[in-house]
């Protein structure tokens, strides 16, 4: 699969905007950490895989937030994420590991109580780090890498994908700090490439996640 030129343009624009905002409002930048769980759906060559279900994954990472106004927050993240799928009978699992960089806008809904709800929209650039296929039999277990080609070819174009992200959550004050509780839906706008039964397929991933963040 060839890397989309549009994807590169969007990435460059997003980085420029993020860096510009950081310089303009550097004193207003807050940092934190984030952890959560996710459940994913995989489509191979635009066909939903039957007889398979989501493998519960996780994400861990760091957050930065910049207040653009009293109601609008720019939030960027760097996450290590595990996603995957498994056969309905549990004999075969396919975990995949990613680096994700969500770039989000949060709109804070004005309310009278201290807990503030917000809505999220944005994009996330995703890079596949690695993955594997695990098949379990009665007397033995076979494990092998399923994304790194033996020839060592450069897979940069195959590993990148871009996601649309929407969600909602709440900000909960905690002493002088803040907790962030949110749920998100992420939909792949283009496709990455993974190996499935000895052949490489165009793969599109969507996922639902819940997470807890802590702002320092």
Order of helices and strands: HEEEEEEEEHEEEE
Main sheet: strand order = 1-4-5-6-7-9-10-12
The CATH class turns out to be Mainly Beta
Structural class: mainly beta
Description:
With 216 residues, this protein is mostly beta strands. It has a single domain, classed as Beta Barrel (Porin). Helices cover 11% and strands 65% of the residues. The chain has two helices and twelve strands, in the order H-E-E-E-E-E-E-E-E-H-E-E-E-E. The chain has helices at 5-24, 156-159, and strands at residues 29-44, 47-48, 52-54, 57-67, 72-87, 92-108, 116-136, 141-145, 160-174, 177-188, 192-196, 199-215. The chain has an eight-stranded antiparallel barrel with strand order 1-4-5-6-7-9-10-12. A hairpin with a 4-residue loop joins strand 5 (72-87) and strand 6 (92-108). The termini are far apart.
Offer a few descriptive terms.
mainly beta; Porin; 216 residues
Write a brief caption for the model.
The protein is mainly beta and 216 residues long. Helix content is 11%, strand content 65%. Strands 1-4-5-6-7-9-10-12 form an eight-stranded antiparallel beta barrel.
Task: Describe the protein's topology.
Layout: H1 5-24, E1 29-44, E2 47-48, E3 52-54, E4 57-67, E5 72-87, E6 92-108, E7 116-136, E8 141-145, H2 156-159, E9 160-174, E10 177-188, E11 192-196, E12 199-215
Antiparallel strand pairs: 1-2, 1-4, 1-12, 3-5, 4-5, 5-6, 6-7, 7-8, 7-9, 9-10, 10-12, 11-12
């Amino acid at each position: 699969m060839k890397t989309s030129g549009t994807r590169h343009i969007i990435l460059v624009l997003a980085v420029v905007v993020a860096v510009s905002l950081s310089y303009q409002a550097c004193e207003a930048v807050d940092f934190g950490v984030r952890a959560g769980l996710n459940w994913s759906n995989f489509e191979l060559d635009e066909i939903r895989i039957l007889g398979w279900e989501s493998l519960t994954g996780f994400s861990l990472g760091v957050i930065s937030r910049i207040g653009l106004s009293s109601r609008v927050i720019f939030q960027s993240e760097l996450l290590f994420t595990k996603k995957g799928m498994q056969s309905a009978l549990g004999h075969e699992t396919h975990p995949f590991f990613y680096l994700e960089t969500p770039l989000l806008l949060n709109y804070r809904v004005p309310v009278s109580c201290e807990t503030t709800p917000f809505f999220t929209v944005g994009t996330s650039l995703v890079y596949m780090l690695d993955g594997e296929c695990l098949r379990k039999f009665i007397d033995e277990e076979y494990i092998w890498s399923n994304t790194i080609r033996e020839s060592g070819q450069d897979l940069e174009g195959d590993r990148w994908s871009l996601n649309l992200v929407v969600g909602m959550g709440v900000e909960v004050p905690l002493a002088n700090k803040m907790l962030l509780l949110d749920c998100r839906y992420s939909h792949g706008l283009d496709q990455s490439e993974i190996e499935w039964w000895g052949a490489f397929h165009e793969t599109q991933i969507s996922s639902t996640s819940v997470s807890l963040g802590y702002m320092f």
